[in-house]
Amino acid sequence: MSKQVKVPFADLHAQYLTIKSDIDAAIAEVIRTSAFIRGPYVDAFEKEFSALIGSPHCVSTANGTDALYIAMRALGVKPGDEVITSAHSWIATSETITQAGGSVVFCDTDEDTLTIDPALIEAKITPRTVGIIPVHLYGQAADMGGIMALAAKHRLWVLEDCAQAHLARCGGKTVGTFGSAAAFSFYPGKNLGAMGDAGAIVTADGVLAERMAMLARHGGLVKGDHRIEGMNSRLDGLQAAVLSVKLKHLEAWTAARRHIAGVYDRELAGIDGLDIPITAGGHEHVYHLYVVRHARRDEMKKFLAERGIETVINYPVALPFLPAYARLGARPEDFPNAYRHQSTVLSLPIFPEMTAAQQALVIEAVKAFCH
Question: Which CATH architecture has domain 250-370?
Answer without folding.
Answer: Alpha-Beta Complex (3.90)
